[in-house]
Design goal:
- By secondary structure, the chain is mainly alpha-helical.
- The protein is 84% helix and 0% strand.
- It contains three helices and no strands.
């Protein structure tokens, strides 16, 4: 931490990481709130809003893992099969993370709705 170049580089990496986490967290809150509204006040419009926001979240995660892959399997991707496998793994990772986020949103919104019902 005494070298300015390393400190600057570390700061940029930390800033990029927190920026990405914040964006996913913000999108998750928006999707969760839409899910809560759709659960509490059943309406096709609120269901549509929930699924539209969920698709936007999936699009954001896809852009993060598919278009700008940070998690590399191979050091060099000089062959077609390496590029295809890298894309496939990133796509699976994107789907798994998206499903975990939606499951978390579902569980949290159901718990909040249940708690709200008990309190009222």
């Amino acid at each position: 931490m005494t070298q300015p170049d390393r400190r600057y580089k570390f700061g940029r990496h930390l800033e990029a990481l927190t920026d990405e986490v914040f964006h996913v967290f913000r999108w998750t809150l928006m999707v969760g709130f839409a899910r809560f509204l759709a659960t509490e006040f059943p309406s096709p419009l609120l269901d549509l809003l929930y699924w539209a926001l969920a698709m936007l979240l999936f699009g954001y995660l896809s852009s993060r893992f598919l278009l700008r892959p940070e998690l590399r399997i191979f050091q060099t991707r000089d062959q077609l099969w390496k590029r295809l496998l890298q894309s496939f793994v990133n796509f699976l990772l994107c789907i798994v993370i998206f499903m975990l986020v939606l499951w978390t949103v579902q569980e949290l919104s159901a718990t909040i709705a249940q708690y709200r019902t008990i309190v009222n």
